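for the writeup, i need someone to sanity check this before i put it in the appendix. the sequnce is what the collaborator sent (i think, or maybe the updated version? ugh). structure was predicted straight from it, no edits. if anything looks off just tell me and ill rerun, i have time this weekend
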Amino acid sequence: MVDDAHFQAILYKLHAHTADNLRYNYPVPYSHRFIDTLRLKPAAYLPGASLEEVCTHFGQHYGQITDPKKRFDPKYEASLDPDKRGPEYSWCLIIDDECLQSLELSPEPIGPRPLADVDFAALESNTDMFVKMLSRYYNTMEKPEILAAQGRGGTGRRIEWNGWLKFSPVQMMHAFREANVSEVETWFSSEDEIVNFPS
């Protein structure tokens, strides 16, 4: 993107959609505490970068273990910053052209209003917009890697590892929970579609 103001507006819209879900799905005062601590700050602006370059940058500057080959080396892990724990050091969200277009075309956030005026079905089903989550261990692939295929004639659905996970910002809390228990990468093994996390 060439217009920083436009990008900030997209981030604001992303934050507002996430805040809607927190506001109307959690009781007061918890919902307000969640919204107050919700931070969506751009870590890097990398125009034209490939997904591999994004993951390399994230691993070098923000990720906890920057060398995947050393991830099980006790001496290497002992030298790491003990404060760098949690999903923010293992996963990054990206807004590429595909995500950007989905956010630009998405409806406006609901915002604070009386509960009687909230269309909960529309709030939960807003899957036209999405962001992508990448693991810091992303591997370069020209196309999705086939993990398994059902049937010899190719008639069954293939299980693929796409290298990313698409999800709606209204499911940000669910994505964070999955990432916090290190199970989120299982969702990468699916069709290239927007994931709907269970409540």
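The longest strand covers residues 131-135. The first helix runs from residue 4 to 25.
thx in advance!!
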